[in-house]
Amino acid sequence: MATEVKVEADPAEAGFDEGRLRRIDRHFARYVEDGLLPGFLAVVSRHGRIVHVTAHGARDVEASAPVESDTVWRIFSMSKPITSVAAMTFVEEGMIDLTDAIARWLPEFAEPRVYTKGSALAPVTEPATEPIRLWHLLSHTAGLTYGFHHTHPVDARYRAAGYEWGTPSGVDLAGASRAWAGLPLVFQPGSEWNYSVATDVLGRLVEVLAGKPLDEVLAERIFGPLGMSDTGFWTADHNRLAALYLPDPKTKRIVRNDEVFGAIGTKRPDCFSGGGGLVSTAGDYHRFTQMLLRRGELDGVRVLAPRTVDLMTANHLPGHVDLEAYGRPLFAEMPFDGFGFGLGFSVLVDPVKAKTLSTPGEYAWGGAASTAFWVDPDEDLTVAFYTQLLPSSTHPFRQQLRQLVYQALLD
Questions:
Q1: pLDDT in tens, 370-391
Q2: Do 59 and 123 fall within a single domain?
Q3: Domain containing 174 — which CATH number?
Q4: Taking the mean position of all CA atoms in its chain, how far away is CA 135?
Q5: 46 has which bridge partners?
Q6: 410: exposed, middle or buried (C-beta count within 10 Å: 0-12, 13-18, 19+)?
């Protein structure tokens, strides 16, 4: 049974101006009315209770099917925090340490090579000066990359091997991990930040630690305990699964895309992508964010210890700098200015530099189809936004949503 999202508390009692919260509705409804967005669902919660829910438009424009509270969304990279939490449960059990070299469990990474110069066809490499460690995977500092970046010769090597937006047909997670291990690293482990397949490798590491497929691990350690019954790598209820859209290059008006990504979430995949393969509902992901806000526990079920959540949501970039100072100038699901990175989450370190009304210590991430969430521990606040528009850089939804939420918060 789907976890319902509905208003649970008077916004005023939670410190919000209800009239100002409705600005969220009007603002994003204009995107829908202008044909720039198929539909959306936004959820605002404070002190553990939902104070605002707004839905507008269609989950499937062509079928005239409206967005509903139980609509299933492809959350793409919002899978990453879930896989990261799963990995940290093994750290808590003493099965692996953050500083352990992953080659102990994934021998394909025993002798990584690092790109130094040359073309994609003839790269010059050198041995890694230190092994890839667990914390490198969690913090995207392993030297791995994505084929879709199109900024580095190693990115082209990923594409040539069939790893641009996904994995080749018939290749499982173990096979993908071996393929990535055979490609050069973009930099020495721990020396920079680069958005990458690191969380997919993390998912493979979790499989080896558990001795079972990633879908079973996530179901046993997170989805089952938290009652996230609609979250997984596919859904059998295709009627509730929202359709995917792209912007027309000239007009920005939405165009349906079933060919490239439409099958995601409709059937059991060959590869369980812990970095981007999950589907979920607003109700399910709300339970995940509430567990995080409560520092690892929800409704009497403890997934992580409080100190573990605190460690994951601290900035792990060396020198506590932001991504602008430490990362590569390429695409990621959050801005670089003023944001650091923890173990599976972006972390806001400087609201002034980020030009945001949010609070230092806010942690967050988003997905390729413009979904996003954040948790603000200081304000006891969680916010999530769901739609299906690729890529997430099409419109500045996330910054706009932050502005609209915090301008309505009065205490």
A1: 999 999 999 999 999 999 999 9
A2: no
A3: 3.40.710.10
A4: 17
A5: 49, 381
A6: exposed
